[in-house]
Fold tRNA pseudouridine synthase B.
Amino acid sequence: MEGVLLLNKPAGMTSHDCVAKMRRLAKTKKVGHTGTLDPDVTGVLPLCLGRATKIVEYLTASSKTYEAEVTIGFSTTTEDASGEVIERKSVNPQITQEEVEQVLLSMTGIIEQIPPMYSAVKVKGKKLYEYARAGIEVERPSRMITISELVLLSSVNNEDGLAKFRFRVTCSKGTYVRTLAVMIGERLGYPAHMSHLIRTKSGEFDIANCLTFEEIEAAIECGELQDSLLTIGEALKDLPKLIIHDTLTEKVRNGAVLELPSEFLEFEVGSPIAVYGEDGSCIAIYAKHPTKQHLMKPTKVLMNES
């Protein structure tokens, strides 16, 4: 069994938990995920099975879309609903829809963000959450992120000194949506946290095409799971594509350096090119040679000569 399985990740499981469960269900050790989701977060989590584990690095999408709920009125240690409350401030007067929309508009584009203490970002060789669990506050490096879309999805619910609303965000890789929720609260003048999150899109992979574990188990029982997997070629369809003649196939399978076709001459060194055989199967990933500008070399051979 090989290919990319689009999982609709359930709440309460880490990405590693999902991989471990899929290994048991598919009866294979070759399973990998393409981007960590926190346990409370649900939604799109592509899993790679079999030889598809070789393409994990090419599926960590640069753009992701989430639907989130922010609660204004108190903040937490983890910036989401699982943390301990660290600050409260009753929302008064009530927050209006116009105020929220203005704040969301002001945060669209390239903005600066500081990653949360409870995150896997490394500082001086240690992950931030390791410092946080030890009660140590360290200086965190800021990063520039891109918010392509940030729109209000619901009315603003003002009740019991809190305000809640839902928003959709399409953002660059490395964006922390829970930190985004905190930043929205700060611009409205209140402590805040992210109270719910679902990833609806990862690159071109959409939640509408994802399977739950219940659906996966049913497909396995019927012997139909392989039919639900994307082939390696389908999963890499957004990469630049080169189709080669059968005469070159054996050389590619053996990792040969090739002439770089003219349409790729302007590519940056290291930019991936998916190489397909005439039968439509993706054989390898190549990239422009670092020193020989008119050649390309393999970075991943996906189908070796058998």
